[in-house]
Amino acid sequence: MAVNKKASCEDEKYQRLDEYIAEHKGRAGALIPVLQRAQEIFGYLPLEVQKHVAEGLGVPLSEVYGVVTFYSFFNLEPKGKYQISSCLGTACYVRGAAKVLDRIKKELGIEVGETSKDAKFSLQATRCVGACGLAPVIIINDDVYGRLTEDKVPEILKKYE
């Protein structure tokens, strides 16, 4: 009989999550750290994982969902290998950030909040990344690119192919 590797990998993830839930169950404020660990393990928080956390901690699913949807650092959808944050703060915006963002969307064929079909890129718009002197700025994972024009976008994205 063949072993379903995907199922065993999922089982291992749930086992790791269960161990963490057991360590935190009954503690005040346990929900957010448990959700953070669940997201580390699964990469995002699909409904099945939210239900598992709710059952494990003995809290209503509505409470779990409320926390997941309130905090921007929780993801309901899988994210790409490369997370692109395009700054739309005032300094970036007046220096052409909208054109840079439009070029990124065109090159990747995705909108803000989406992940490319190959799961390589996720795109988000942010209000300020604190690098106003380099405006306009994008951040790809931990790499910062400043003083951008829309023409520089294809060359930058090519580095991540």
Automatic annotation (TrEMBL):
Enzyme class, broadest EC rank: oxidoreductase
A Gene Ontology molecular function term of the record = hydrogen dehydrogenase (NADP+) activity
Q: Where would one find the signal peptide in this protein?
A: none
Keywords attached to this entry: 2Fe-2S, Iron, Iron-sulfur, Metal-binding, Oxidoreductase
Gene3D superfamilies to which the protein is assigned, alphabetical: Glutaredoxin, NADH-quinone oxidoreductase subunit E
Its needed co-factors are: [2Fe-2S] cluster
For this protein, what does the record note about how its cofactor is bound? Answer: Binds 1 [2Fe-2S] cluster.
Which Pfam families does the UniProt entry name for this protein?
A: 2Fe-2S_thioredx
Q: Which domain of life is it from?
A: Bacteria
Q: EC number(s) of the enzyme?
A: 1.12.1.3
Question: Mind telling me which CDD domains this protein's record contains?
Answer: TRX_Fd_NuoE
InterPro entries assigned: NADP_DH_HndA-like, NuoE-like, NuoE_dom, NuoE_N, Thioredoxin-like_sf
Which residues does the record give as [2Fe-2S] cluster binding sites?
A: C87, C92, C128, C132
Family note: Belongs to the complex I 24 kDa subunit family.
Q: What is this protein called?
A: NADP-reducing hydrogenase subunit HndA
